[in-house]
Write a structure and sequence with these properties.
397 residues, alpha/beta, Rossmann fold, 6-stranded mixed beta sheet, 3-stranded mixed beta sheet, 13 helices, 13 strands
Amino acid sequence: MEVMSARLAITLACAVAGVALAAMLGRASRAGPSIAFFEPDEAALRDAGEEAGRGALGPVRAFEDSTLKRFAVPPELARKIFPLDHPFNRYDPKTYFAHRPGLDARCEFAEHPDGAWRMRTNSLGMRRDEEVSTVKPDLRVLVAGDSHADGLCNNAEGFPARLEAELERRHPGRTIEILNASRGGYGPYNYLGVLEKFIDLEPDVFLVWFTSSNDLTGVLMLTRMFRGDKAPQEPPDVRDRDARARSAGGAFSAGYHALSYFARFPGQLDYALGACRDVLAEVGRLCEHHGVRPLVLYLPPPICLPWEVEARDAAEVRDLLALDAEDLALAGAIKARFLAACAELELSVLDLEPLFAEGADAFFYRSDLHLNPRGHARVAEALVPLLDGAAELATAR
């Protein structure tokens, strides 16, 4: 385990595609927890950037002198660029979309040990069975992440609940809350929005889950919109090839698409890493202002982790995208540059890659390469020693 100081023009929604609203409120769903792909309206993105340039959309700044370019995304625009028609989602002015509160839906999934899991949220839309305490606990940790952190598993099987239970066991008599405000499809701007949305809960620690395979491509869409920049144009045959690769299996979104894209457009990698750095700088500044300790969790592309038996459909997706050894090696360079940026910002990082060194197939679902319950348990185990001290200090205040 290494501790250091220091989402795709297509957004992903970790949820059940095609589930009816009635089903999500309690009846069993026949649909499995597959990734639902949502293609944003490119014309809406372009028009929004132009409107912002004319001053028609108000800027959003965490501080008066913030240099991070953002503007308010009203509901009518958000519906065109985020998966708000999904029955698990609702509009949110800070994070653009979020879990609906009070969800309780059975999600059938053959790879889950029980053949299914439940999507449950509390009244704040957090992946948590319990409500947030009205009294400040001894330690409160806020978690923001994508579909890996959101979890294709029951709340009790996710790393936030496991972490909370273990810290409570180790610190009897102390009150601890690990609040999971993650959502499938989130990326860096959403993570910042989570912090801004829940800062009044006075978290002691802010855990930011960063998945390079999605966050580096996903940050491009909003950064271009906020800055009024244009995306490189790809020929129709490349777009058709990518569509076939996406349909072939989960390996496309679990790393291969990002590596293929940045191999074709290395300048876009610089652009994406710079955007991530800018957002994380704002996160760090906001945390410092409110006395919150930030901790970044870094997950490299799951498809690039050490699988003992190659992940399902990986070879087909790799062949469709014509990825070679040099393209695959890009994952290591991306990681090094990201960690260097975090070090420059003085953000602590937990590198999750060493946690799965003995074989990723023990910790990830083979069909879509999301963390399985064993993977969540492994992450919680690694986080315990990093938060033990926080529990001690929070109680001593």
